[in-house]
UniProtKB/TrEMBL annotation:
Protein name: CG3342-like protein
Top-level division of the source organism's lineage: Eukaryota
Annotated Low complexity bias: 101-110, 125-134
Keywords associated with the record: Coiled coil
Coiled coil is among the record's keywords: yes
Taxonomic lineage of the native organism: Eukaryota, Metazoa, Ecdysozoa, Arthropoda, Hexapoda
Keyword Protease belongs to the record: no
Source species of the chain: Drosophila affinis
Compositionally biased tracts (Basic and acidic residues): 112-124
Amino acid sequence: VIAKVARAFSGSNDMGRVGVALSLHGDGIAKLILYKTKSQVLASVVLTEANASVIERESYIQFYADDKCFWSLRFDLDADEQAIIQALRKYDLPLACDSAASSSSSPSISDQDNKPEKDVEKKTTTPQLQLQTPQPQPRARLSPNVSTTHRQSEERPLVEDVLMTPVSRAVSHSHSSNLLPLRSEEDEIHDNSLIVSKRRGDSGKEMDKQMDTILQAMHRLVSGASSSTPLKANHQITMAAGSENSHESEDELIELEQKLLNLKRENRTLLKSLRAKDQALEELRLSSSALVEKNKALNQQNAILLATMASKYEQANSSSSSCLNCEQSATLISVLKR
């Protein structure tokens, strides 16, 4: 009917990825089969029997096989799991749902139902809190032992006003506090003028010091620039000389490379000529050896002819008949011997 791929667990052993197939036979038998290959079946369960059932969990399904082994299947895709479950329901095969999943889903629904009520309660309580906020009360007088900085931080108004603050003193047994006597405006003006004159004197001295430092810095810059000009000129001269030397060395290198190429070409031509001469010498050797052999053969033939002629001459001399041309034949024989 349907076949999918899932990861199988036999008890606590991971069996890897297996094939899950739901098959229906003609006699009304339905089987759930786990297999690695077509010939290797891991487990099977007949779902039409009374005790057989498939348990649907939150993210996997479980069942007891015919060999009483407990198997768990986890599908890679939710669609594959839903396809198997829908096929089981379509053919009215035993499928049991996990109660823990349903119970875990019911509290979530109840929590979702309670959330709007809590939100409504919060919304209704916030206006009451706003209405119940207390009105500002008049501030109590501070004791004289409180410092003026703390008092200013707590009692700073929105608009800056001139306030007369009492000086903190040790608390007496009668808890009485006295204010400092106010100074006159003339005394304050006289003090301010003294402060201004002191500041002017100090500022004048500071300005003189700053001018001295600026002049010293300018003098250093001028002296540094004047001393750096001959150094720059020397540097430029050395750079120009170095550039000329580099150009000359580059030209020399180019000339040497050209000479090297020419020498290589001459060497190649000489090698070719030497090879040709070697080949000619080899040919001469071969031809000379052939001529020597021919000369040997001719010498042998000449020796044979001389021997025959000498034998004929001896036969002629030994015969009784006289030869008319004896002198001529003798001269010829001597020439041939030479």
